[in-house]
Amino acid sequence: MATVMSNEDARSGNSKLQESQHDTYTNKLNKIYRKLDFRIIPALWCMYFLTSFGSNCYGLTLTMNSEAGHSLAQALKLTSKDTSTASALYYVGYIIFDVPMNLIMTKVSPQSWLARIVITVGIVYTCYHVLDNNKGLIAIRFISGMVGAGTWPGMSYYISLWYPNERLTRRIGYYFTAAQISAAVAGLVSAGFQKMDGVRGYTGWQWMYLVYGVITIACGISLLWWLPDRPFKTTRDYSKSSNKFLKLYSLIFTPTHPLSADEQELHREDIEERYHLIKWTWKDVVEIITDLRIWPLILMYFGVVGTGFGLAVFGSTIIKTNNPNLTSIQVSLLYAPIWLFDLGGILIITPFADKFKKFRAAFFSFACLIIICGMFVTTFAHGPWNKYAGLLIAGFGLGPTVPICMSWSAEIFQPRYGDVGTAVSAALVSGLGNLGSVTATYALYSGWPADKARLYKYSNMMLVVITGASIIASGVCHLIKDKVRQNRND
């Protein structure tokens, strides 16, 4: 009897010891990821804030200082066709270049590539202040999309280098809040720049583009040292190169690693599965494109991003149309809270989407239903303020949808395809999904002049339809994600 009790005590003691060791290991990992958070998330947040700001302020510049006849649309004598074409070509630039830009990123230093994106975006937007005709605007909007291509999928790829999938959605949500804060700040800042209208002969929108471009260039340069490179070296080490230029470049632009040697080893153990397929061929790219699971993800992204950018670009237009008595400054100030509600949706819902990964489709669909509810309210409610409340509801639902799309994409494609699976799936989902943005900005709102008299009723309902399609696509993705190409020989 005593022997039995002794064995039971021993097993109990071993179990407690193993549990204690596991808790210690988990706590160490949590500290490592918190340390990475402090280094990586603020840098990505600033990057996304600035690259999003240009798109957000573009919609606002169409109405800035309109009372004085100095808005971008008035100064360049833009027609509805001009604005819808310029907006559509911006996303065409993304669609064409997202995949090649992200493929390049798998072969080069990722922090240098992300810095390049920010610097070139800043340079292009600085040039906006000299625009004086509609053709120039159409051309520069396409160029803006081209140089900004790879921003969102590039960040999704980069964050997957440092974090395991069960920690991804929350981190993506953290820096995705930058887009919402950027939209809110754009509304507030544009109100201030409208006060500068006429200073030194520049209109308010010219001042905004000029100041924004310079700040973005400076931030892009800082990212060369602010963002760490990869956790482990998988590309050629140029610090040992015989080429003096490459060696000098490596010495100047190689940032310090955020972890100590012991922390790096523990981190490696936790994410080593992420690095089992680093090399890739064009056959892998073709396999990803033909993988049936990518298309539901693209459709999910198509609907929610189409709705999101529709409201981002034309949110101020909707507010003004619903309440014509508002001044342009009041419209800018009312535009900001939509994206603060979006931020609230991210902070509240994305942690649960990470914790309960099996129910990503349910969390995504729930958020989409909130968007649909908001669009119905803003379309059919009585009174301009009730309609405005609908925009706030839609903003809350929009927040968690895109982070869930991107983390789900990495979860599905990384195990089979490795590095290129994460990069290409993110680029395809973002790039082709942006056709939703083209639809919303080219075919709806300003691209549908007859709908203005209906207070954009039909445009709003089209966004409801494509958001509904996103819900259906998420259900399809949930059903087939574990049934398609589960083996490498499929």
Automatic annotation (TrEMBL):
Membrane topology: Multi-pass membrane protein
Ranges where the Major facilitator superfamily (MFS) profile domain occurs: 47-485
Subcellular localization: Membrane
TM stretches of this protein: 40-61, 88-106, 113-131, 137-160, 172-193, 205-227, 298-319, 331-349, 361-382, 388-408, 420-445, 461-480
PROSITE patterns: MFS
UniProt keyword Transmembrane, yes or no: yes
UniProt-listed SUPFAM superfamilies: MFS general substrate transporter (SSF103473)
Alphabetical GO biological process terms: biotin import across plasma membrane
Main location: membrane
GO cellular component: plasma membrane
Keywords of the record: Membrane, Transmembrane, Transmembrane helix, Transport
Span list, region Disordered: 1-21
Superkingdom in the source lineage: Eukaryota
Single Gene Ontology MF annotation: biotin transmembrane transporter activity
Range of residues in the leader sequence: none
InterPro entries, per database record: MFS, MFS_dom, MFS_trans_sf
Record's protein name: MFS general substrate transporter
